[in-house]
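CHAIN AND CONFORMATION:
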Amino acid sequence: MTDMQKPYPNISVPQRADIEAAAARILGRVRVTPVVQPGAGFSAGGAEVFLKLECLQHSGSFKPRGAFNRVLAETRLPDSGLIAASGGNHGAAVAYVARELGLQAEIFVPEIAGPAKIARLRDYGAKLRIGGRDYAEALAASRIRQAETGALSIHAYDEFAVVAGQGTLARELEHQCGELDSILVAVGGGGLIAGVASWYAHGPRIVAVEPQRSRALNAALALGEPCDVDVGGVAADSLGARRVGDIAFQVAHARGLTSVLVDDEAIVAAQRLLWSQLRVVAEPGGAAALAALLSGAYVPQPGERVAVIVCGANTDPGLVA
């Protein structure tokens, strides 16, 4: 449990000790992804910018951290294996974890899931179910199926062990960069930002970055509680949660996190800059945090040490180049 003020009395939030335990549990299962300083063209105002290239993680996103922690924390796994719903990245991570651990995986994805993500799921040998217009509908279908099979359900973002696993990224970042003033994190359902902010409970400013057309956390903070939002835009397959997770809202509310919005054009521009200057392929959701810096949605102070998490790469490279 955490000492943060809690708007919901029954929501548990990981502490640093939980994230340390997750890091020990998944050690050797996930990559230590690099941090680069991209130089000119990636910031205005004299800020010092660091890019955490989590797009180079197994399965193409940060998601295996949480999925491995969730599975390895279990003392007994069902014979029916794992089940998950996903816009694509979480499903790929669960399928990857299942393959690495010799388990079965059944993954439900909505119709908006990109071809690159569907291909990756099939490559990992998961049983794939495609249906529903967005993540929320895929999740509902997965829950019906889980009740039939008894498989271990792994939520994409609103589960304690998953959030603690995602927090290992922040632990790694702290070792790599030392003190930071701010960290920009793309948000869909909020599992990554909840993990990052749980690790840095009293440290740098954590800035949530969301697409204008998929703004679940931004809307929840404005209203004072999680609420349903419309989902659309170029990053909908990774950041298109209809409703932010309760854990993420708990952390964001308690920490007073800032949420900024970026449009589709800024996201695409960030993708192209990553490719043209660094030869890094990022999907739209993976480039969204950088889009906030490039577009002026977030304006750092001179000399500010800013980390940007490039969190996913599951796209067709031909769409970026």
